[in-house]
Amino acid sequence: MADNIKRLAVFCSGTGSNFRALFHAIRDRELPAEIVLCLSNRSECGAFDFAREQGMETMFISEKQFGSPDDFGRAMLGALQERNIEYILLAGYMRKVPDAVIEAYTDRILNIHPALLPKFGGAGMYGIHVHKAVIAAGESESGATVHLVNEEYDKGRILLQSKVAVLPGDTPETLAERVLNCEHILYPDALEQFLAGKL
Ligand code: GRF
Description:
Elements: E1 6-12, H1 17-28, E2 33-40, H2 46-53, E3 57-60, H3 69-82, E4 87-90, H4 99-104, E5 109-113, H5 128-136, E6 141-148, E7 158-165, H6 172-195
């Protein structure tokens, strides 16, 4: 493998539609990266199905398998380092990344959040809760944010955002669908620019 091909891990908990979008963009745009590991806190998920179809390694790892948060963090970090993972892409990973991993991968972990941070972020702001809150606040626009991950939920440096309208009559579900479609464009674009050192 060429030296300039970055080795990526994707962390998922669910469907993995962003993971798929990233995977296809890397291949179609010939980005200098390869997703070599799909990690999840769930033993089965849509993301794993896709990873297996691609012949990619999957890893189920959960804090419940360990005696302490420190043991969990050490095990996850060890697994990443053994595989020479250089960057981590969170794509619908519904757990906090252990501190040991965040420290070791400072400025090398990206996440996508389904709102325009710094609004509608933080603890409890995930999934449909985000879109409910956006509608309840009477916002006229929402969107998605790709940001770096630090020890505080949704507080790392913003890399790229994309907006969508909140339409009259929107439900949290219709808004979620519009935002998700925009995520599938935004995350690959952000990855491409990030890898090129432009963000
Ligand atoms: C996306 O809305 C993303 O913003 C959030 O979790 C969701 C993941 O969806 N972090 P998917 O698994 O990529 O389909």
